[in-house]
């Protein structure tokens, strides 16, 4: 499992992130405080505050392609 922080500022950012997530066969979650949502779910992401810094948990050790797709959303 790998974990990175992401920030999704606009609706288009959320759409692009969900599209990238759906290319992956493994599970990906976004965590905001005590809430955990499926990163492949547009409605799930909109149920939290996507403009905040979110923890993205990737349940695969071989996720370099996904990290490359979302690199513009990754923050420290």
Explain what you see.
The two termini are 18 Å apart. This protein is of the alpha+beta class and 76 residues long. The protein is globular and about 30 Å long. The protein has helices spanning 11-22, 42-46, 64-69, and strands at 2-7, 28-32, 35-38, 53-58, 74-75. The protein has a five-stranded antiparallel β-sheet, with no helix packed on it. The chain is built from three helices and five strands.
Helix content: 25-40%
Largest sheet: 5 strands, antiparallel
Unreliable parts: none
Cα end-to-end separation = 18 Å
The gross shape turns out to be globular
**Order of strands in the sheet with most strands:** 3-2-4-1-5
User: What percent of residues are in strands?
Assistant: 25-35%
- Protein structure class: alpha+beta
